[in-house]
Amino acid sequence: MAFKDSWQQQRQLRLQQVEQRRHAVTLLLQETHKQRQTKASQLRSDLSLFRESLAYDTSVRREQLQNYCETLHQQTQEFLAIAHADRELMSQQLSHDLQSFRATLTATVDSLRQEIQADVQQLQLETRSFLEEAEQSRIKQRIRLTRNLSIFIDNLRSDVAEFLTDAALERQEKALQDNRDRQAELDCLFAGFAEFRSQLKQFRSELSRTVWGDLATTPTPHPTPRTPHPAPKKPSGFKIVTPVKSTPAPKSDEDKIYEYIEVMQSVRLTEIESALSMTRIQAVEGLRSLIQQGKITQRDRAYLISTK
Q1: Paired residues of 297 in beta bridges
Q2: For residue 32, what pLDDT band results from cuts at 50, 70 and 90?
Q3: What percent of the chain has pLDDT over 70?
Q4: Which of 6, 161, 286, 300 could disulfide-link 257, Cβ–Cβ 3.0 to 4.6 Å?
Q5: SS3 for 279?
C-alpha cells in the first residue's frame, strides 16, 4: 500500500511538474511571440526608413551624376575648342615649316643639279680622254701585233722552206738508195745470167761431144756479150790535194760543212747557215753532195756523220 501511495504521490508530483513545465513553455512562447512581433515591427520600420534613405540617396546621386555629366560635357567642349585652336596653330606652323622646307629643298635640288651637271661634264671629259688613250693603245697594239705577225710569218716561211729542203734532201737520199739497190739487183741478175750462159755453153759442148764424138769440130766460139757494168764511182770520200807551198787551197763549202758537222756531231740547216755564213742554196748543195757521197746522213732534221 505504501508503495502504491508512494507511486501515487510521485505520479501527482510528476504531473504537477509537467503542468508547471507546460505553463512555463506557454509563457515562454507568448513572450517569444511578443518579442518576434516587436522585432518584426522594428524591422518594418527600419526597412521603410532604409527605403526612404535609399530613395533620397538615389535622387541625390542622380543629381550629382547629371551635374557631373554636364560638367564633363562642358570640359569636353572646352578641350575640343582648345584642341581645335592648337591644331589650327600647328597646321599654320606646319604649313610655314613645309614652305620653308620646300624652299630649302628647291635650293638643294638646284645645287645638286648644278653639281651633277659639273660631274657629268667632268666624266664626259675623262671618258673622251680615256677613249683617246684607248684608241692610241689599240693602234700601238695593232702595230705591235702586225709586227709580231710579220715576224711569225717570216719564221713560219723559213720553217716551211727548211722543212721542204729537208724533205727534198731526204727524197733525194731515198732515190739514191733506191738506185743503188736497183743497181745491186741488176748486177746480181747479170751475174746469174752469165753463170747460166756458161752452164748452157758447157751443156752444148757436152752434147756435141756426145753426138759427134771427139771428131766433131769445135764450134767457133761466139763472142759473149759484155755484161753491162755500172760505171765505176769516183772516190768521193777522198780528195787529192796538191801541195802548194805558197798559199793553201781554199776549202770548199762541202769541206767546211763536213768539218763543222764532224765537230758538232749533229747540226741543223739553220745552224750551218748561221755558223758558216752561207746562203741556203750553198748549204743545201753542200749537204746534198755530202749525202750523195755517203759522208753524212740525215735523221729527222739533223745531219750526222755517216758511220757506214
Answers
A1: 304
A2: very high
A3: 88
A4: 286
A5: coil
Burial 123-154 (b: 16+ CB within 10 A, else e): eeeeeeeeeeeeeeeeeeeeeeeeeeeeeeee
Residues 6+ apart with CB under 8 A from 228: 190
Q: In angstroms, rounded to a whole number, what is the distance separating the alpha carbons of residues 119 and 113? A: 10
Give the residue among 212, 304, 308 at the shortest CA–CA distance from 266. Answer: 304
* 296 beta partners: 305
Residue 267 burial (CB count, 10 A)? 20
Tell me whether strands 302-305 and 266-267 are parallel, antiparallel or unpaired. Answer: antiparallel
User: Is residue 1 pLDDT above 80, yes or no?
Assistant: no
How many Cα neighbours within 13 Å face the side chain of 48? 5
pTM greater than 0.70 (yes/no): no
Cβ of 299: how many Cβ atoms within 10 Å?
9
User: CA–CA separation, 216 vs 213, rounded Å?
Assistant: 6
User: How far is residue 251's CA from residue 71's CA, in Å, rounded to a whole number?
Assistant: 143
